[in-house]
Amino acid sequence: MNVKDQYERPIISLRLSLTNRCNLNCLYCHHDGMILTEDEMTSDEIYQILKIAKKIGIQKIRLSGGEPLLRRDIVEIVEKTASLNFKDISITTNGIGLKKYAKPLKDAGLNRLNISFDSLNPNTYEKITSKNLLHEAKEGILQAQKVGLFPVKINMVVMKDINEKEIMDMFEFSKENNLVLQLIELIKSDSCENDDFSIEHHYSLDNLEKDLENMADEVKTRKFMQDRKKFFIDGGEIEIVHPIDNTKFCQNCTRLRLTPEGKIKPCLLKNDNLVDIITPIREEKSEEELENIFLKGIYNRKPYFTD
Ligand SMILES: Nc1nc2c(ncn2[C@@H]2O[C@H](COP(=O)(O)OP(=O)(O)OP(=O)(O)O)[C@@H](O)[C@H]2O)c(=O)[nH]1
Ligand SMILES: C[S@@+](CC[C@H](N)C(=O)[O-])C[C@H]1O[C@@H](n2cnc3c(N)ncnc32)[C@H](O)[C@@H]1O
Ligand code: SF4
Ligand code: SF4
């Protein structure tokens, strides 16, 4: 089965937020758009939801959070996910736990990783994350690379007056270590604790995109990935995530989300259209009923930014 939403967007990927807990406290964090509850699904409940996802045609799974590596059963979750033969399983992490987990996760069936890393400067890193853990994050990145997870992407949220001058240094670091650099525009959302920060430090990626276009040996567009652009420069790769007021980004959005407590979330930036799937699972409803609940989540999808 291959499902489309009411706007003819195929549903290709599911992003599971495994927890709202985190070991960093980034100034800009949007918590993947979550309402911050403490409830977390068990790995068996997650597995049941993934089975329905597979059945309705979801191909790609992303595990995120909060910090997904804080889940003690993270390896078991990846193992269970891998047993369902999805095309792609990835994790977004701050990298602090990777020294310990990169190899077990790879062995459990993880394909790739995105690692948040906004600065190579220890003071700036600490200012952003409120923890003096740059060294651990960097070690985690290199460990992921070493155990053969590929590609490893660096997620760098670009912020005015904080790290915007570091883009080229981060690109050099990425090239040297065979990493893809993903530059992310700072998003303002209801789930950011500090609204003023997102406004004050917003840095538009428009001009940078034009500069990269001129510098690039090749430019590619990721069609089912929000029409994002990838720039190939001097043997390195930069991808731009430019979601704000970007109608094309939303027109090409093919992802559904799941909250840690078990609700289907149709859009990162909205919380008024969630669909509870964990209660019916705990009530042992039939497969058909559970599938219909999933489809209701898809039915609720709507592009956030429109013309
Ligand atoms: N507006 C919006 N922003 C998103 C969405 N998904 C991801 N982002 C932003 O994109 C950034 C990177 O997300 P990741 O979790 O690393 O995954 P990704 O880049 O979307 O996925 P891949 O490129 O396939 O690895 C995050 O900072 C999010 O803020 C989305 O659906 N809508
Ligand atoms: C919420 S974090 C969860 C996963 C993990 N803790 C991490 O930091 O990678 C997922 C991604 O969202 C990004 N992010 C968080 N708040 C953001 C914001 N306000 N604007 C843009 N990206 C943001 C982070 O940089 C990270 O790459
Ligand atoms: S961006 Fe990731 S690492 Fe930073 S506070 Fe948010 S969840 Fe934690
Ligand atoms: S509709 Fe737009 S804002 Fe909402 S999740 Fe998709 S890309 Fe993000």
TrEMBL record:
GO terms for biological process: Mo-molybdopterin cofactor biosynthetic process. GO terms for molecular function: 4 iron, 4 sulfur cluster binding; cyclic pyranopterin monophosphate synthase activity; GTP 3',8'-cyclase activity; GTP binding; metal ion binding; S-adenosyl-L-methionine binding. Its EC number is 4.1.99.22. It catalyses: GTP + AH2 + S-adenosyl-L-methionine = (8S)-3',8-cyclo-7,8-dihydroguanosine 5'-triphosphate + 5'-deoxyadenosine + L-methionine + A + H(+). S-adenosyl-L-methionine binds at residues 28, 66, 116. Pfam families: Mob_synth_C, Radical_SAM. [4Fe-4S] cluster 1 binds at residues 22, 26, 29. Keywords: 4Fe-4S, GTP-binding, Iron, Iron-sulfur, Lyase, Metal-binding, Molybdenum cofactor biosynthesis, Nucleotide-binding, S-adenosyl-L-methionine. Gene3D superfamilies: Aldolase class I. [4Fe-4S] cluster 2 binds at residues 250, 253, 267. CDD domains: Radical_SAM. Its cofactor is [4Fe-4S] cluster. Residues 6-234 form the Radical SAM core domain. Binds 2 [4Fe-4S] clusters. Binds 1 [4Fe-4S] cluster coordinated with 3 cysteines and an exchangeable S-adenosyl-L-methionine and 1 [4Fe-4S] cluster coordinated with 3 cysteines and the GTP-derived substrate. Pathway: Cofactor biosynthesis; molybdopterin biosynthesis. Belongs to the radical SAM superfamily. MoaA family. Catalyzes the cyclization of GTP to (8S)-3',8-cyclo-7,8-dihydroguanosine 5'-triphosphate. NCBIfam families: moaA_archaeal, PRK00164.2-1. This is Probable GTP 3',8-cyclase.
